[in-house]
Design a protein that fits this description.
heterodimer; A: 4-stranded antiparallel beta sheet; 0% helix; B: 6-stranded mixed beta sheet; 11 strands; 59% strand; globular
Amino acid sequence: NAGVTQTPKFRILKIGQSMTLQCTQDMNHNYMYWYRQDPGMGLKLIYYSVGAGITDKGEVPNGYNVSRSTTEDFPLRLELAAPSQTSVYFCASSYSRGEPQHFGDGTRLSIL
Amino acid sequence: EDKVVQSPLSLVVHEGDTVTLNCSYEVTNFRSLLWYKQEKKAPTFLFMLTSSGIEKKSGRLSSILDKKELFSILNITATQTGDSAVYLCAVAMNYGGSQGNLIFGKGTKLSVKP
C-alpha cells in the first residue's frame, strides 16, 4: 500500500525557474490537499481539490497553481520561483471531508 | 481570524515521564480536532475528536476535547525515546466549500531523553 507518494524528495531551484511537484495517491480518495510547512510553523493550506476537475484556493495560494485531471494525481506548479517559496511541501488526501487526511513524505524545496 | 495555538512549543523530558500537550482553538465553525505525530517526514494521524469529554486512547497516548473551553490535551504516559517528535494539533472547519479543511497549530516539539 503506497498511500500518498510525492516526488521529488529534494530540489534546489534558482530564482525565476519553474517546476512541478508531483503527488499521487492510490487510495481512491476524492479529496486532495497541498500544504507548505516553514520552520517552526504549522502546515498552511495552499490549494485543495474535492474531486477530479475541481480545485480551490487555500490560505496561501499566491505563486502556485494546481490541476486535478484524475482522481489519483494532484500536481502543484511553481511558475516563477521566489526565495519565499523555500519550504517543505506536503500533499495529503482523504476519503471524505470528515475523515483524517493522510500525508505524503514531503518535498524539501530550496530556492536560491 | 481562525487560529489554533499549541503549548508548550517545545518540551524536554526523561524516559518514563508523563507529558501533557495543550491545544486551544478559536474557529468560526468547528467540525473536529485532530492530533498528528510528525517525526522526520509525513505527519501520521493519532486521534480525531468531535465530542466533548470522551477520551480517546491508543496505548500510552490519550486525548480529550473540551468544546466549551475550546481546548484539547494529548497525554503520553511512560514516555519512550521513540515518542520524540513534533505533535501537531489541527482543527477541521465545518462550513461551505472549506468544510473539512484543516487549520494547524505550530506544533509541540517533544524530546525524550534516555
